[in-house]
Fold this protein.
Amino acid sequence: MTAMQEIDLSSLCQSCGACCGYSQNWPRFSVESDEELALIPSGLVNARQSGMRCEGDRCSALQGEIGKATACGVYAVRPEVCRTCMPGDAECAMARRKFGLPMIETA
């Protein structure tokens, strides 16, 4: 087993947050039901009701400092696009590159 396999890859997100600050078009709604969307505080939804509200490119639900320590303020009800971005995948690599963070090597 390699050192990276021994680390819980999901814990890497809590010291990153790059995907949440990559683009104001990224935290969009796609397959969520009306019931699921109703669980997201309205103040965090954009004016078009098409995704999360952003401040610049940063999702307004992101807490903390990108690349240091972050958390999602609506983690339990975050959009599907947020749920599918995984540590080390292509989207993760693209977002980390924007912030000058090293790539995550997965097996």
